[in-house]
Design goal:
Blueprint (H helix, E strand, L loop, with lengths): L1 E3 L2 E3 L2 E2 L4 H7 L3 E2 L3 E6 L5 H14 L4 E5 L5 H8 L14 E5 L1 H7 L1 H15 L3 E5 L2 H6 L4 H18 L2 E6 L3 H6 L1 H5 L2 E10 L2 E11 L8 E7 L2 E5 L25 H6 L9 E6 L5 H13 L5 E5 L4 H10 L4 H6 L3 E5 L7 H15 L3 E5 L1 H6 L4 H17 L3 E7 L20 E10 L2 E11 L8 E7 L2 E7 L3 H6 L6
Parallel strand pairs: 5-9, 5-10, 6-7, 6-8, 8-9, 14-18, 14-19, 15-16, 15-17, 17-18
Antiparallel strand pairs: 1-2, 3-4, 10-11, 11-12, 12-13, 19-20, 20-21, 21-22
């Protein structure tokens, strides 16, 4: 602990993962006792060992006590598949100690004595006990003794100065009644949540004494490198940053007539939602917006969830748009992610990184409807859209998003999902039946902070791309999808 003015400042141990440190509020408090709880198979052991090996690489002495019936060698053999495992640290900085026989043959008190002796002899800085719940399972009929042993363990570990993690297959009822949760400085819950046919791993910090941790559910994945963490996408915190600057500069959409409908084009750093049915031209409008920026020296990113980069290049080629050349110049990035089994928070975190890497001034998020399929609730979908657009805009980008509507001729519905309020601008593309033929129409439903043309105009696509034409003769009939009077 250090002093910051008149205030004590807790030292923190980095987990080795910047996203996890952010979730924890800066890392694990030094000399703290934390419990990692969760069902079998969620990644508790990998979590603890990944943290242990990272700290060992920082010259910390670490010990891993296992209460499992199988020997430590079996655990080591399985853990060697992960990149964080470093056999060179074994015995020098990392020690595995099997407490299984001591627990079964001599009881929990003897097991705790073995732990005490080893920590003191090896001068350990970091201690893991996996599974500590096994101690309770052996003392189920003697709860007073169980409680006393837990308190003794906590007291001498704190006195020694070791940072400790207790791992166990605890459920919610265990958290309410077992003593380790009462004395713990931190409680970390790992879980696996099923969404239709897909399961997502989650992490939640239920308690972290002295830390400004991020509440709620966050996400992680397991791979060869171990666990990768993705903090829940949240809107930027503008508190204390003074007045938020509002841009007055306008940007071109790439179509002069559409710019005119906005009174000169959308405002820079604004967000525009393009809604329409299948085949109305949403993707083309987004590509034209990106190319208009590239022509003016503004790099752009297309974040696609439906068309692949090859499909987009092929589409552009039919219109005389050389997307490959723009990519080769480093001014355009076409990114595609399959919406099947999509982890939305990971996807949007990676999208922010791509935007930052390119220094993008224009961003098209093409396929909000596909994104919605991977989100468990309508509320969370709105949160993701809102937070993402704020982050994209804070990076200096002007944002286009596309959303597919379930379009039916004669339908009076103007918008689909209730997210139009989250965007600064809303463009509606529609198919209309006019004198027994289908025509396209475009309407600027909303342009925040600027006067705009509210008329319904013809919208067409030819060999050179999309075009905005004149007004429909009968606005009300056009919006209904009916034929104007002849």
């Amino acid at each position: 602990m250090t002093m910051q003015g008149d205030r004590a400042e807790l030292r923190r141990l980095s987990s080795g993962s910047a996203p996890l440190d952010a979730i924890l509020g800066g890392g694990l408090p030094e000399r703290s006792l934390s419990v990692v709880a969760g069902a079998p198979g969620v990644g508790k052991t990998v979590f603890a060992l990944q943290l242990l090996f990272h700290l060992a690489r920082q010259n910390k002495r670490a010990v891993y006590f296992t209460t499992l019936s199988e020997p430590s060698l079996k655990l080591i053999r399985y853990m060697q598949q992960f990149a964080f495992f470093d056999a060179g640290l074994l015995d020098e900085r990392v020690t595995f100690v099997d407490l299984g026989s001591a627990l079964l043959d001599e009881g929990p008190q003897r097991a705790l004595e073995v732990m005490r002796q080893h920590v003191e002899q090896q001068e350990c800085d970091f201690v893991v006990v996996d599974s500590f719940k096994a101690v309770h399972d052996l003392l189920e009929t003697n709860r007073p003794l169980s409680r006393r042993l837990v308190y003794e363990l906590a007291v001498w570990l704190a006195a020694w100065g070791a940072t400790t993690v207790l791992v166990g297959e605890y459920d919610r009822d265990d958290m309410a009644r077992l003593p380790e949760f009462a004395i713990a400085d931190g409680i970390i819950r790992l879980a696996s949540e099923r969404h239709e046919l897909t399961s997502f791993r989650q992490i939640e910090i239920l308690k972290m004494r002295g830390a400004d941790y991020v509440t709620g559910l966050h996400f992680f994945e397991m791979g060869r490198d171990g666990l990768s963490f993705f903090p829940r996408v949240r809107a930027p915190d503008y508190r204390g940053n003074g007045e938020i600057m509002v841009a007055s500069e306008r940007v071109t959409t790439g179509l002069a007539e559409l710019d005119a409908m906005f009174g000169g084009g959308p405002l820079r750093s604004s967000s525009t939602l393009v809604e329409g049915g299948t085949g109305t031209g949403k993707t083309l409008l987004g590509l034209r917006f990106l190319l208009a920026g590239i022509e003016r020296g503004e790099p752009g990113v297309h974040l696609g969830l439906e068309e692949t980069p090859d499909q987009l290049r092929g589409l552009g080629a039919t219109l005389g748009w050389d997307l490959a050349r723009a990519e080769a110049s480093g001014r355009l990035r076409l990114s595609y992610t399959s919406p099947v089994e999509l982890s939305t928070d990971r996807y949007l975190d990676q999208a922010r990184q791509q935007i930052a890497d390119l220094g993008a001034r224009r961003v098209v998020l093409d396929g909000l409807s596909s994104l919605a399929l991977s989100v468990p609730s309508e509320r969370r979908f709105k949160e993701l859209v809102y937070a993402s657009t704020k982050h994209f805009r804070d990076s200096g980008a002007t944002v286009y998003m596309t959303l597919e509507l379930e379009e039916a001729l004669g339908s009076g519905h103007l918008t689909g999902r209730a997210i139009s309020s989250l965007a600064d601008n809303v463009i509606l593309l529609r198919h209309l039946e006019v004198r027994d033929r289908l025509e396209r129409a475009v309407l600027v439903l909303k342009a925040r902070g600027t006067a705009h043309d509210s008329g319904v105009r013809h919208f067409s696509i030819d060999a050179s791309g999309p075009h905005v034409g004149g007004s429909f003769a009968d606005v009300r009939s056009a919006l209904r999808g009916g034929s104007p009077p002849g």
